[in-house]
Write a structure and sequence with these properties.
elongated; Rossmann fold; 7 strands; 33% helix; alpha/beta
């Protein structure tokens, strides 16, 4: 049991931390999102993220940006666009050594970079567009980080609140004109 204790403490300290949440949309970004409408169906396929694919489908469906949003498997006919989602992250590699030794009392503060890459592909034309939503983060590991999770401004590492889904939708709306052309066959 004594040998397991340090391992359990290290695992627990990984969970005791917070990362800054994405910024909320500005009024201009929200207005652009609400005004954008694409007469295209979107199937969410390949998904490499810590949150469920259904969460993204529901969030994009609520925006009404696309005519229909569903899991790729839900379409009888191929959708106009297929989305592949990949989350990336890169902390500045600080090891929480002091935080580990003090059982989380002394926090480790680090900077990081994370985000989401959404690749939209039109099955009919094979043309694709990559949309990247990235942000610089502040990471706090230790009990202080756990206390920060009570605020909308902080999230657990590897997870996002609704702001990331808003950011994804906003970035897609910003590229609406380019997205509309993906399924059009050029002659």
């Amino acid at each position: 049991m004594r040998r397991l204790l340090p391992l359990l403490v290290l695992i627990f300290l990984q969970a005791c931390g917070a990362v800054t949440a994405p910024q909320p949309l500005t009024k201009a970004e929200r207005a652009r999102l609400e005004a954008s409408r694409l007469d295209l169906s979107l199937g969410v396929g390949e998904h490499h993220a810590s949150w469920s694919r259904e969460d993204l489908v529901a969030a994009l469906g609520e925006t009404r940006l696309f005519r229909r949003v569903a899991r790729l498997e839900a379409f009888a006919e191929p959708p106009d666009l297929v989305a592949a989602v990949q989350v990336f992250g890169n902390p500045d590699n600080k090891l929480p050594f002091v935080t580990f030794l003090t059982l989380g009392l002394v926090p480790t503060v680090a900077k990081g970079h994370d985000g989401v890459r959404v690749t939209l592909t039109a099955p009919t034309t094979k043309r694709a567009l990559e949309v990247v939503v990235d942000q610089r983060d502040l990471i706090i590991i230790g009990w202080v980080g756990t206390a920060m999770l009570g605020s909308q401004e902080w999230v657990r590492a590897g997870s996002y609140n609704g702001r990331m889904f808003d950011r994804i939708a906003s970035e897609l709306a910003a590229r609406a004109e380019a997205i509309e052309t993906l399924p059009i066959v050029l002659r």
